[in-house]
What we know:
Blueprint: H1 6-14, H2 17-23, E1 25-28, E2 31-35, H3 39-56, E3 72-73, H4 74-77, H5 80-98, E4 109-117, E5 125-128, E6 134-139, E7 145-146, E8 149-154, E9 170-172, E10 178-183, E11 186-190, E12 193-195, E13 198-206, H6 208-220, H7 230-233
Antiparallel strand pairs: 1-2, 2-10, 3-4, 4-13, 5-11, 6-10, 6-13, 7-12, 8-9, 8-11
Helix pairs in contact: 2-5
The structure holds zinc ion.
Amino acid sequence: MDIFDPDYLVALFKRPFANNRNQFSELADGVYYAQMFTDHFCEQVLGRVRHFETKCGTDEPETANSMHWNAITTKQLGIDPLVHSLVAFFDSEISPYILPERLQLQADSLHGYVVRYGPSWDQDLGFHVDDSFLTLNICLNDGFTGSELVFSGERCPIHIDTGSFAEEQFCIEHKKGSLVVHPGKNRHHVNQITSGERYNLIIWCQSYIERDSWFGALETRECMDFCGMHSLLWPGGIG
Ligand SMILES: [Zn+2]
């Protein structure tokens, strides 16, 4: 299975690394968008999903997480090796050139799943944060409307339900082959899908260091550096 657009791969090795940053639009601190995957890649992954749907009929898949009733784990799809090589490529060739240092953690576990939005599947998704320090979100198809991904800013666990500032709010329309990269703790939701079906491959990059500090903050009730409320509470930047 080809993972990346061959043209992209050739360009990757020919061009200076600095140019690769230009492929990614930075939408907020740590949030990036790039049109990156070929139709072939998307169709290969979707083929696995269709096979799973045919094989399992309407049986409910193993729950991928507490928010998606209709997601299918990459383990169930048999594409965990693809997920691992994709993240390895991202870690070595992309992450150091686009991500702030705080998000360049070593992932000690990955959780991959394919979400399905549509009349027969999930219709939307409520406001939440991910169980990840970084999330990769790849759109696998076109032919749908609505279902945009809407961000509301990064928060620590203490300030998770606070409002957001205008500059923290933005909306991303998925396109087939697009990659959205975002910090897991940037709060987000998915708008109602208004026509068609949308399939996305989601990968949560998880780190026990990040998880420990997240739950540590919950116990100490101290705001964390990345939180959008932090600079308001600590104007001198000292947390
Ligand atoms: Zn905070």
